[in-house]
Amino acid sequence: MSLFVTFEGPEGSGKTTQIELLRDYLEERDYSVLATREPGGTIIGNQIRAILLDPQNTDMLPASEALLFSAARAQIVHQVIRPHLARGGIVLCDRYADSTLAYQGYGHGLGLEMLHTITALATAGLKPDLTVYLDIDVEEGLRRKLAAHEAGQTEWNRLDQQEAAFHRRVREGYLQMAAREPDRWLVIDATQPLEAIQVLIRARVEAKLAIRE
Ligand code: TYD
Q1: Which of 72, 80, 86, 140 would staple 39 via disulfide (CB 3.0–4.6 Å)?
Q2: How far apart (Å, rounded) are the C-alpha atoms in residues 95 and 98?
Q3: What topology does CATH give the domain 3-212?
Q4: Where are the extended beta strands (E) located within the chain?
């Protein structure tokens, strides 16, 4: 019995903490859980990640971004995600193909249909069973991420440098995608207390697991 859950959300929405809490919760219930993140999660993926997030790569084209994120995705899907699902495990992934649609599509304006085609190649059609979207106002999200960076908790990457209008388009994109596929998406107001958010996520995950068992 496998389950593939992805987490999306703008900068500073608290995805990482929620993934860790959910992993601990599921492991206590004897599920085999693999938590990973994009871009990264494989040797090649981490090398691609370094190119993508390097603040010095200011001249990177949106098309290059889309292809590099997708290349890293192909590696992680093939080498990490599919094998764990095939063993009947649960995969929790920090970002997935919806990030490419949101950032490179809605954010940078690349054609969505083209991005769907590239994504189909990278993922061989693997879609999440559930996508948790932690929704937060753009200014508040950036403020949180900057604060975490100043406290030494996270890096400040090349995509964080984009202007607020870019991040607003990304958020709109996420909300549109979520509205189109309500069964797959769980949209949560990320300004709620951590524990309250985790309760909502667990309830939806439990419901998905119940259907599959
Ligand atoms: P990361 O440091 O993992 O940040 P976060 O905590 O926000 O997840 O950086 C990932 C960045 O890459 C983030 O700004 C979103 C962006 N991104 C894309 O633009 N397209 C993609 O397909 C993916 C996976 C991420």
Answers
A1: 72
A2: 7
A3: Rossmann fold (3.40.50)
A4: 3-8, 33-37, 90-94, 130-135, 185-189
